Each structure stands twice: as C-alpha cells, then as structure tokens.
Amino acid sequence: MVATLIISIVTFILVILSILFFPHIKLGKIKLDTYWIVALIGAVILLSFSFSPINEVYNQLTSSSSINPLKILILFFSMTLISIFLDEFGLFKYLAVLASNKAKGNQYTLFILLYLLTAVLTIFTSNDVVILTLTPFICFFCKNSKINPLPYLIGEFVAANTWSTMFIIGNPTNIYLATSAGINFLSYFKVMVIPTILGGLLELTIILLIFNKKLKEPIINSELTYKVESKVDLIIGLSILGICLIFLIISSYINIEMWLVSLICATSLVLFTLIYRLITKKNWCFLSNPFKRLPYQLIPFFLSMFVIVVALNYQGISNKIATILNNDNAIWAYGYSSLFASNIINNIPMSILYSSLPNGLSSSNYLKAIYATIIGSNIGAFLTPIGALAGIMFTSLVHKYEVKFSFLDFIKYGVIIAIPTISVELATLLMVI
Q: In 10 A of CB 85, how many CB atoms?
C-alpha cells in the first residue's frame, strides 16, 4: 500500500512539475508534451510490480459496462471531432466576427456578446475547442483595437469552464463521472441546468464589476470581415451536430449507448465531408486538419491515470480517502474537495479517482456527490492553470500572443471568481437534487 501511494503521489507531482517547468521535449522534429509521458511511466511502474494488477485493468478495459474507459474516450473524441470540423468550416470565427461588429464600439456590449457566444458554443460543442479557437481571435482583435484583452480572455476562459457543466458532453470529466454513475443525458441536464445558469450569471456579474473601468474605454478600428468558405460543409456539420444531440438525449430510451451515438455521427460527418470533396474536388484540408488537431496525448494520459486509480482502489487507499469525504454533507465535501484536488492532481485524474469514492453512500447522497464532483472538476479549471489541461493550453496561447498574464494573475482572478461561483452552484444543487 505504501509503495503504491508513494509512486502515485510522485507521479502526480511530476506531472504538475512537467506542466509548469518542462512542458515539451523534442525528438528530432517531433515535439511531445511531457505530462502524459510522466503519467505513462508511473502507470508502467505500477503494472510492472503488480501494484495495479494487469488482469484487473484488462477486465475493466474490455468490460461491456458504460464506464469502460475506452467507450468514454470514443465519446469524447467523437464529440471533439465534430466540434473541430465546425471550427474548420468557419462557424466559430464567423460568429466571433459577427459579435465584434454588432458591438459597434461599445466594450460592454462586446464583452457580453463574446461571453454569451462562448457559453453557447461550449454548451453545444466542446470547451477545449472553443478556448483554442476564440483565444487567438480575442488576442488579435484586442491588439488591433488597442484595448485591454484581459476582461475578454478571462471572461472567455471562465465561461467555457462553467457552461461546460450544462451538458454531459461539455467536458471529459462530466462524461467519465456521469457515465460511471449511470446518469443519462436527459437526467444529467435536468439536474445541472439551473446550477449552471446561476453560476454563469454570478461569474458574469463578478467579471463586469472587476473590469468596470477598463470596459468603459472606447474601441478603435473594430470592424472585421470574415466569409465562410463552404456553407454546404457548415450546414452538414450543424445538421449532424443537431441529430447527434437529439439521439444523445433519447439514447437511454432507445437503448443505444452515448459513445455509439457520437461515433456514428462523427463517422457520418467524415464520410459526408469526404464525399463532398470527391464530388467538388474542393479544399481537402477540411478533411485532414480536424484529425491533426485532435488531442491524441489525452489517450495515454487518461489511460495511465486510470491504471494509477485502479492501483489505489486495489490497495485500499481509495477507501481511506472515501471515509473522510463520505458524510451527510456530500455536496459540500465532494464539491469543495474536488475543486482543490483538481488543482493538485489535475481534474482528469481527480475525476477518475473520485468516481468510486461515493460508492459507500446511500443512493441519494451518491448522486449528490457525483454531481458536486462534476461541478468541482469544471470550476476547478479556472482556480489555477493546473486545474485542467484547458488551463495549460490557454496560458500557452496567451503567452504566444504576448499578453501579460502571469501564473499569479491567473490565481488572483481565479480565486475571486471560482469560490463564489462554485458556492452558488453547490447551494443550487442542494435544492434541485
């Protein structure tokens, strides 16, 4: 038990240190992220010394249950692929330019429009894709218009990691935790819709108060133009996304698992795009670019962390953690602890670990703990940059575009916004569940 605990803790620490101090390594012309390599080494060590039994890992990877990690990865990657296709078709940029032009020189209007755009896109697509797409746009627009980008960058990142709680597909942590608890798409939405809305409105108010003076400044040279290159592709993409969401909602009633629905829809989109390219001989980058942009590094990271959690469960360490959290105040215990745990070990490994902790609770408290953990895993993303991989990508992009936004700045704004937001969402959850 002690050896497993030491190896796991050292792995978690090295993952965080790698993210902060040596995020990449180069092998010739190939650039690799280091965080998943560190996690993989930790998992291999645990498997090699049988601290995480290979047969147990194999059984869970090949099980027909909905919590099979491979099914969860397929669901996440399928939905991410659809989102990236829509981005490649120009949807996100077109809407961002439209919002900017609608503001007509008023920063308050611009901020609210971009915040709402981020919220809507996040709900129906993917928070990570939204962040990767809108962050460069915001940096470019603000530099061109000579306005402070911080209100918009913070608003975008916070919105993407709050409104991602509304749908089960908004974040891989939602997918893993909800699926592990047997929660279907519609049941999830019924519980999370009100906490998400109230949390989103509160954080919007807080950000507007923080940046009140900066948003009073005028916008210079704000007019932009952007034309969608292929409207047919965009219409097909939006149609498939709509069909996918409908079938995800009714999946539990027609006995089709969500991962299969998303896989069929993503495959259909790829086939339609391929056929349209063959017929029209138009730009093939619409077909190849989305596959290049998929976050493949998440696969070894997710599976490595899964192996580590199997070891913690097998050695009885998870049970000891559960005894601390399992009480009548499950919402508060799991909500706040998952928020801070996400910023110690990242929200993905935290979610994998926390998925089994509430098993000893009554059925009602079990669901409360799971939903509270989902909230903590999302809101934890904007407490510190370590809270989620999205935070690492976000800060990297901000620095790339030469925006002054330090690690301490992230934490300063994160604490001010995250703590009240999660408190309101957990209090609301207590009333709706």
A: 29
The 10s digit of each residue's pLDDT in 324-350 is: 999 889 999 999 999 999 998 889 889
The pTM score is 0.90
| Residue in 379, 431, 371 with CA at minimum distance from that of residue 181 | 371
Three-state DSSP at 24 gives strand
Q: How far apart are CA 156 and CA 94, in angstroms?
A: 16
Chain centroid to Cα 426, Å, comes to 19
The strand pairing partners of 26, in sequence order, are: 31
Helix axes 69-88, 91-103, angle to 10 degrees: 60
Backbone angles phi, psi at 153, to 5 degrees: -65, -45
Size of the chain, expressed as the number of residues it contains: 433
CB 389 within 8 A of CB 298: yes
| DSSP-derived 3-state class of residue 34 | coil
Phi, psi at residue 297, to the nearest 5°?
A: -65, -20
Q: Could you identify the residue written with the tokens 């291999």? A: 44
Integer-rounded Cα radius of gyration of the chain: 21
Contacts of 109-113 with C-beta under 8 Å, sequence gap 24+, read: 110/152, 110/219, 110/222, 111/151, 111/152, 111/155, 111/207, 111/208, 111/211, 111/215, 112/204
Which residues, including other chains, have CB under 8 Å from residue 67's CB and lie 6 or more apart? 60, 176, 179, 180, 355
DSSP-assigned beta bridge partners for residue 25: 32
349-406 pLDDT, tens digit each: 899 999 989 998 988 899 999 999 999 999 999 999 889 988 888 988 898 888 999 8
225 exposed, middle or buried (CB, 10 Å; 0-12, 13-18, 19+)? exposed
Cα Dmax for the chain:
64
Task: State the pLDDT at residue 222.
Answer: 64
CA-CA distances (angstroms) from residue 84 to 79, 275, 291? 9, 18, 9
List of the chain residues with pLDDT < 70: 66-67, 221-222
CB 140 within 8 A of CB 401: yes
Contact 312, 353 (CB under 8 A): yes
